[in-house]
Amino acid sequence: MNKVLVIEDSVAQGLDMKMGLEEQNFQVVVATTVFEAFHALKETTPDLIILDTVLPGVDGIELCRTLKKDYQTRNVPIIMFSNDNKLHNMIKAYEAGTDYFIVKDEESSKALLILADSLRYRKQRRLSLSA
User: Fold this and answer.
1) Are the beta carbons of 89 and 56 closer than 8 angstroms?
2) Where are the strands (E) in 1-131, listed by range?
3) Contact between residue 48 and residue 73 where contact means Cβ atoms under 8 Å apart
4) Which end of the chain is more exposed for a tag (fewer CB within 10 A), N or C?
5) DSSP calls for 22-49
6) What pLDDT is stored for residue 126 in this prediction?
7) What is the total count of domains within the chain?
8) pLDDT by residue for the chain (131 residues), tens digit each?
9) The predicted structure's pLDDT at residue 114
10) Listed residue (80, 92, 88) closest to 54, CA to CA
11) CATH number for the domain including 112?
12) What pLDDT is attached to residue 95?
């Protein structure tokens, strides 16, 4: 797992995630709009998608549902990364197909990086066991 698509409307937060992930040898594309995200998905299928729940003009949970129905992206793990800490919205995100939900706070960026690295390790392990 090397390619990560970050869909985050905050340019500053998107760049922070990009820098942290690139330090762990991920190739990162940041999209600040759904249009940019779909453009990036036309170029390549990422190994991981990090998705904010609040985006301009679209609900991130609905976007997750769309991505999980699409043949190209349905098997790509999605981490919802959001300021929203309401349980009913977390449940909606899991029902939409998100794999993990992390609430943004001071320590959450570290948790996000650990989780992304863990997903990469698990994928590499599965590939080596099947070879």
Assistant:
1) no
2) 3-7, 27-31, 48-51, 54-55, 58-59, 78-82, 100-103
3) no
4) C
5) HHTT-EEEEESSHHHHHHHHHH---SEE
6) 67
7) 1
8) 589 999 999 999 889 889 888 888 889 999 999 999 999 999 989 999 999 998 888 889 999 999 999 999 999 999 998 888 889 989 999 999 999 998 887 776 777 777 777 777 776 676 667 76
9) 75
10) 80
11) 3.40.50.2300
12) 96
Residues ≥6 apart with Cβ < 8 Å to 89: 53, 61, 82
What is the DSSP-derived secondary structure letter of residue 74? T
Amino acid at 2: N
Domain that holds residue 117: 3-130
As a whole number of angstroms, the distance between CA 95 and CA 3 comes to 25
How would you class 42 by CB atoms within 10 Å of its CB: exposed for 0-12, middle for 13-18, buried for 19 or more?
Answer: exposed
Q: Measuring CA to CA, which residue among 77, 104, 76 is closest to residue 90?
A: 104
Tell me the whole-structure pTM to 2 decimals.
0.88
